[in-house]
Design a protein that fits this description.
The protein is α/β, with parallel strands linked by helices. 44% of the residues lie in helices and 13% in strands. It is built from twelve helices and twelve strands. It is globular. Helix 3 crosses helix 5. It has an eight-stranded parallel beta barrel with strand order 1-2-3-4-7-8-9-12, surrounded by seven helices. A two-stranded antiparallel ribbon has the order 5-6. Strands 10-11 form a two-stranded parallel sheet. The chain has one domain: TIM Barrel (Alpha-Beta Barrel).
């Protein structure tokens, strides 16, 4: 079992002049501590226009800053919006590779589509075609990070001539690829494409076992045809996170952030919105109580309870548990205390055997992954004669005048 931190950079209203600066500084301090404690991943989303819910629109900048301040924790796009309307595929390939180089080979590359009308309509993206557009772009991004030169592409979502996309990532053939998943159907899609599943739904260990069984049965079958140049066979699952020796205090500190997170993501999909006039926290407070049922929040409780929860997820086949610690108005000092308690009282139960468990899993999956890679159709590399010559933008004489 590995562990991660996830950041939406939520800032419920009311705001002050330093709200966005403060949340970024606090998140950075949390990741630096996580790096020292031995937490494995720091994930940052990419969302646009989702005020209060997520102010993390340029995650590549945030992740590069985290990489510069840490030594071993892996820094992940969780996820990057890869549909060309958001980011041209070549720009995503460049950003992922640059993050990998800046971090010394610690980048992870999650792909996503966006789910809200604010984002999709803001960039003119057809909601009915968004998954197909994302997968088309993601496959080409993988080619761009590997091929010298990239042959070019004519597709539904974008067209591009032959170019050599630089820089190339440190990890070969490219950083591990993941896909945002919210239900068993997207779990199946991730597995068919040989991509890790970033499961952004809150499920219990029993449901997680069903997801893992579906995912790994496809990874081991002929249905798995890798989208990238490598298979990343892993499931990461988001869970609540607030630890205290008094379970009622853990609940008091963490439940509002957890419930606001769940309320806001649903409200942004289902409710009308007025840009620049969001009322997410105000609406949440109005509904809290009899109109907003108290949710069970796995991961909010005592260290002993968290050890039990992690063990159940691990036995269900989950490879990484990602903490939802920065949600709503959860306080920075409480998050720091929870992380320190996790490092002292939870992580030691799992860290010693982790490498051996990973080794056994890799050995078990190796023949299936080899078979999957044999099914992939790679683009053939171009010969020198096939690489088109790009005409100069000006006549040579304008640069090298005689006399």
């Amino acid at each position: 079992m590995k562990f991660g931190l996830m950041y939406e950079l939520q800032i419920p209203k009311p705001w002050d002049a330093d709200s966005e600066y403060r949340i970024i500084q606090e998140a950075t301090e949390q990741v630096v501590l996580g790096d020292k404690l031995g937490i494995d991943h720091a994930w940052a989303v990419e969302h646009h226009f989702l005020e209060e819910y997520s102010h993390c629109s340029a995650s590549e900048v945030f992740l590069a800053s985290l990489a510069a301040k840490t030594e071993r924790i892996r820094v992940g796009f969780g996820i990057r919006q890869v549909i060309p309307g958001y980011n041209h595929p070549s720009r995503t390939a460049e950003a992922v590779a640059m993050l990998d180089l800046v971090s010394g080979g610690r980048a992870e590359f999650g792909i996503g589509e966006g789910a809200t009308r604010l984002e999709l309509r803001g960039y003119g993206i057809d909601a009915k075609r968004k998954q197909a557009l994302a997968l088309e772009a993601a496959e080409q991004i993988a080619h761009m990070m590997v091929m010298e030169p990239y042959p070019g592409f004519e597709g539904e979502s974008f067209s591009m001539p032959c170019r050599n996309v630089v820089p190339k990532p440190m990890q070969k053939p490219h950083p591990p690829m993941w896909m945002a998943c919210t239900n068993v159907k997207t779990i199946e899609t991730a597995a068919r494409n040989g991509i890790g599943a970033l499961a952004f739904s809150f499920v219990d260990p029993e449901e997680a076992r069903r997801w893992a069984d579906v995912y790994y049965s496809i990874i081991k079958s002929e249905q798995c045809v890798p989208l990238g140049h490598a298979v990343n066979a892993n499931i990461a699952l988001v869970a609540g996170f607030s630890l205290h020796r008094d379970p009622q205090e853990a609940q008091r500190r963490g439940i509002d952030g957890f419930q606001f997170f769940r309320y806001a993501v649903n409200a942004l999909v289902a409710n009308e919105t007025r840009p620049g006039r969001s009322r997410l926290w105000e609406e949440y407070e109005e509904l809290r109580g009899p109109d907003l049922p108290n949710l069970v929040a796995p991961g909010i409780g005592t260290p002993e309870g968290y050890v039990e929860l992690v063990s159940r997820f691990q036995n269900a086949g989950v490879d990484q548990l990602i903490f939802l610690q920065q949600g709503g108005k959860n306080r920075h000092e409480h998050i720091i205390e929870s992380l320190e308690m996790f490092g002292a009282e939870v992580l030691p139960h799992f860290a010693p055997e982790r490498d051996e468990r990973v080794r056994r899993k890799e050995a078990e999956l190796a023949p299936f992954i080899d078979a999957a890679m044999a099914r992939k159709r790679f683009l053939p590399p171009m010969t020198d004669d096939e690489i088109p010559i790009v005409a100069p933008s000006r006549e040579r004489e304008s640069f090298y005048r005689k006399g």
